[in-house]
Design brief:
The protein has 5 helices and no strands. The radius of gyration is 26 Å and the shape is elongated. Helix 1 runs antiparallel to helix 2. By secondary structure, the chain is an all-alpha fold.
Length: 101
């Protein structure tokens, strides 16, 4: 798959110099699809590695994306900083009314 992506990249360079714009657009679409497939597979491998090696943080650091780790860390911090909001009772509802019934 990677070899085919390299070939497509080379074809894009050659086609970029010619007047074959339809072929160029199709080659870019094909390249983008391959890149999306590769990205999805790499993400899947990293998720599995995080699970499989969860007891070995040093291995997890080697196989996972630093950017994704920073993003998860920031999300956790935001979650801890967020204060839970207590819902206020509606005006027509009160605790006293419920106990009188």
């Amino acid at each position: 798959m990677i070899e085919e992506a390299k070939e497509l990249g080379a074809a894009l360079l050659v086609r970029g110099k010619t007047e074959d714009r339809d072929g160029l657009v199709q080659a870019r679409i094909t390249r983008s699809r391959y890149l999306a497939m590769i990205d999805e597979r790499v993400s899947r491998v990293r998720r599995v590695a995080r699970y499989v090696f969860r007891a070995s943080p040093e291995i997890v650091r080697e196989v996972t994306s630093a950017h994704a780790r920073e993003r998860r860390r920031a999300e956790r911090r935001r979650g801890e900083d967020a204060q839970p909001v207590e819902p206020e009772p509606a005006e027509d509802e009160s605790v006293e009314d419920e106990t009188e019934e």
